[in-house]
C-alpha cells in the first residue's frame, strides 16, 4: 500500500467532516518518528510520551495555519524539537542545574530505565551523545538516527548548512573519542 501524501492529509484536514480522519492518518504516518526524535533528546519514556502528546496537540491546533512553505514533516519536527528543548531548559531551571548535570541525570535514568534494551555499546553511545553540547547533540541525533538531510535540518533549526556540517563533524569526533577511550565506562 502506497503511503498517503501530505497534501492529501492537508486537504482532508481542511474539511470539517474528514478532519479527524486526516489527523489519524497524520498520526499514523509521523507519530513513531517524532516519538524517537523526542526520546533521543529527553531519554525518559514517560517524559517523551507527555511531550509527544503536547506536540500533536499543537499540531492539531495549528495545522490549518500550516503555510506549505516547508514539508509537513519538517514543520512537525520543528515543533517537537522546540518542545523538547523547552522541556530540557525547564528541567535545568527546576533543578537549578547546568546542562551537564541534566545530561548526567539523563544518563543515570537511561541505565535504570526498563524501556532501554540496548547493549553495552549502545549504552556507551548514548552516554557519549549526552556529553555533547545541546545543539551538537540535536544535530547529531537528527543526522545519525533520523537520517535527515542537512537542508532539512537547516530548515528545522534555522542554521546554515555549513554550520551544521561543522557541528556534526565535531560531534562525531567527540563521540568517537568517547567510545574508543580505553576506560570502560559501563
Automatic annotation (TrEMBL):
A matching Pfam family: Sigma70_r4_2
Domain (RNA polymerase sigma factor 70 region 4 type): residue spans on this chain: 124-173
Domain RNA polymerase sigma-70 region: 26-92
Keyword Transcription: yes
GO molecular function: DNA binding; sigma factor activity
Keyword Thylakoid found: no
Key words, A-Z: Sigma factor, Transcription, Transcription regulation
A single GO BP: DNA-templated transcription initiation
Homology family: Belongs to the sigma-70 factor family. ECF subfamily.
Entry-linked PANTHER family: RNA POLYMERASE ECF-TYPE SIGMA FACTO, RNA POLYMERASE SIGMA FACTOR
The protein, known as: Sigma-70 family RNA polymerase sigma factor
Amino acid at each position: 500500500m502506497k503511503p498517503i501524501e501530505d497534501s492529501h492529509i492537508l486537504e482532508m484536514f481542511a474539511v470539517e467532516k474528514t478532519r479527524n480522519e486526516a489527523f489519524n492518518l497524520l498520526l499514523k504516518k509521523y507519530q513513531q518518528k517524532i516519538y524517537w526524535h523526542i526520546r533521543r533528546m529527553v531519554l525518559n519514556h514517560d517524559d517523551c510520551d507527555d511531550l509527544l502528546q503536547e506536540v500533536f496537540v499543537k499540531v492539531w491546533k495549528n495545522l490549518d495555519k500550516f503555510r506549505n512553505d516547508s514539508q509537513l514533516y519538517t514543520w512537525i519536527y520543528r515543533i517537537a524539537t522546540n518542545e523538547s528543548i523547552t522541556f530540557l531548559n525547564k528541567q535545568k531551571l527546576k533543578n537549578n542545574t547546568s546542562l551537564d548535570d541534566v545530561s548526567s541525570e539523563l544518563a543515570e535514568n537511561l541505565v535504570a530505565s526498563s524501556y532501554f534494551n540496548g547493549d553495552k555499546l549502545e549504552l556507551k553511545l548514548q552516554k557519549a551523545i549526552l556529553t555533547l553540547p545541546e545543539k551538537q547533540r540535536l544535530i547529531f541525533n537528527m543526522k545519525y538516527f533520523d537520517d535527515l538531510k542537512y537542508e532539512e535540518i537547516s530548515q528545522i533549526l534555522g542554521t546554515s548548512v555549513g554550520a551544521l556540517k561543522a557541528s556534526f563533524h565535531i560531534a562525531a569526533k567527540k563521540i568517537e573519542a568517547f567510545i574508543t577511550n580505553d576506560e570502560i565506562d559501563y
